[in-house]
Design goal:
mainly alpha; 0% strand; WhiB family transcriptional regulator
């Protein structure tokens, strides 16, 4: 993808082979307990914080965060499910104040993304 290309998300996740967590204990990233819209118990949060430490050193942290905001469970992109829930809520609140022009711009981008089968522009 060329410079200056903004990507909402990339459903193909081409960064996946480079993720730092691939050799880690998967249950650490999916510590049970809690709901996405509530803070987890202290024990659960401690496990999630361990996973976030691994994420902090990941070479594809920002791509992961961008592409996994919609994930309901687990730690992705250094954010746990509660943090992603709060991020989605904040975006929804900000969107309420968008101008018609901004809404139309996002709509056009989402339509283009849909028409390309989820592939961002500049990709085959």
């Amino acid at each position: 993808m060329g410079p200056g290309v903004n990507v909402l998300f990339d459903v193909r996740r081409p960064w996946w082979p480079q993720h730092a967590c691939q050799e880690e204990d998967l249950p650490l990233f999916f510590a049970g307990g809690g709901m996405a819209n509530r803070r987890p118990a202290t024990k659960t949060q401690a496990k999630r914080d361990q996973a976030k430490e691994i994420c902090a050193g990941c070479p594809v942290l920002m791509q992961c965060r961008r592409d996994t905001t919609g994930e309901e469970f687990g730690v992705w992109g250094g954010l746990d499910q509660y943090q992603r829930y709060l991020a989605r809520r904040a975006l929804t609140k900000r969107a309420k104040h968008w101008t018609t022009e901004t809404w139309l711009m996002w709509g056009r981008e989402l339509l283009k993304l849909r028409d390309r089968g989820g592939r961002p522009s500049g990709r085959s």
